[in-house]
Amino acid sequence: MLEHLTQPGAASLALDKTGGEPMPVVVFEVNPGESLLLDISAIRHIAADLRRGAGFRLMGLARGGVLRTPLLSADMCFERDDRMLCRCDYPPEMEILQRRDTFRAELRLGMEVGVVLRDRESGLSAQGDLRDLSLQGCLVELSASAMTALMSNAAVFELELFFPNGTRFVVRGSPRHQKADAQRGLVKVGFVFAERSAEDDRRLWFMVREIEREAARMAGNTRTPLAPSQLFQGNKNEEHGSVSRRQTHDYATAMTRRLAPTAAYLDNQILALRQGGMVDAVQLSRHADRLLALQDEDREALLFAVQCLDKETLLVRHSLGVSVHLLDFARGEKMPHELCKALAAAGLVHDLGKALLPRDLLEMQFLNASQYRWLQGHVALITQRLESCRWLASSVVEAVVRDVNERLDGHGYPHGRGADDLPELARLASVVDVSDVMARLRPGRRPWSAEAIYGHLHDSPHQFDRRWVERYRAHFGRWPVGTLVRYQGGLLAWVRRLDDQGLPVEVQISRGSAFPGADPEQLLEGGALERLGEPVASLPAPG
């Protein structure tokens, strides 16, 4: 066993008293049964510790397992030919630890190791939590929204681990498997490491060992008490000491928090579609019911919450925006309950076929004829994946999914249907869809204000049914809930509630043009709002 440690770069030395990281050492000479002579020239700064009797272990990798000596101590440290050498007793035995190339050390509750996942090509990044670690890879827990944003194209990512004591470790890895937790809106992604150096392996051995050791200490599974691992000690308020997925969740309202699980469902559904799956009929039904219940409880709070999910991807925000506004509009028209549910469900998934298109195509500011035809394929892609949703009426799917991009003059897509072929639901849905699209930041296009959107729809009777345009405006009003408005004097605010005449009775002051935050002191209502008078203009949202 010691023979393996005499190979170049094979041995490491770890001081016992600090739980320190393994350091490179050369097993220079082996005298069986008597002593070892170690070359510590690369780490000569530890000679003083060794002379004072600090214990240490030698360790290395062999046959897929980790070899480790019992605790040793130096007999003497001396210099010879510009080398710093250390003599110690010959170890009476060697330990072969678990096969660390496949063994994964799992983190227990309370052991927080943050992970920043980066796609160097796109410049995108996301924060997550480390769940286990091995020499070969790791398991990272991410929010589903971060997963869908990052995983469309990249095959290799940079992972940076942040331990509580400030230790950082960077490695490249490829995703190999993932498992979604729809209830919590999370995804666990398994990564396989690539391009590791001998130094990387040394550090990984140390981190795997310390995670296992700390987990055992916390569980009380040892005969004698263990000292806390140094990796998990330190100031968690340091700059990088508490990087974690949990820091990214900050919702502006209670309703936004209650809407977030449906956003997470959409993220998980997108992942399933990218893996060749179908639309989950049961989950779609549950989340449509959820939207109906939230709308029953407080329709204006739900409309405002849609504007507050700024951390979600554009696709998820648009899907929720169409679904919630379509539902609210349908209920305003006193449509039957089952039809309202079907419209909400169809709105949730109507655009998810875009998740199956290349990201580069979706980010183009201008499309040529060929690229535009390619984009149109998103309709067929999602329609095919809805075949398992037999509870969803085909007439609703055709209107909201298949025909929502068609226009009265026949210049829409994917089939160029004209006015004679478009049912009332399709005409209604196209108004809702375009209103939401134009209100959002898109590649090469700035968001439009509510007034500009109404004007465009009204002035385009060849494309949009004017009856539905006028009913839509009458239902949501001149200052729709979730709209950014400006008052006389320049005050900017987000509309949260309207009175019976369609005037704002509760607004949230905007700091610049940022999305609504969670500060209740920014609310204005009652006399303070009345003194401001009616808004003078609506403004485009940030995105």
TrEMBL record:
Q: Which residues form a coiled coil?
A: none
Q: What is this protein called?
A: Metal dependent phosphohydrolase
Which Gene3D superfamilies does the record cross-reference, listed alphabetically? Hypothetical protein af1432 (1.10.3210.10), predicted glycosyltransferase like domains (2.40.10.220)
Cross-referenced CDD domains, in alphabetical order?
HDc
**Location of the region described as Disordered in the Swiss-Prot/TrEMBL record:** 225-246
In which organism is this protein found?
Alloalcanivorax venustensis ISO4
Q: Which Pfam families match?
A: HD_5, PilZ
InterPro entries, sorted: Cyclic_di-GMP/3'3'-cGAMP_PDE, HD/PDEase_dom, HD_GYP_dom, PilZ_domain
**Source organism's superkingdom?**
Bacteria
The residues the entry assigns to the signal sequence are none
Q: Can you give the residue ranges of the HD-GYP domain? A: 291-489
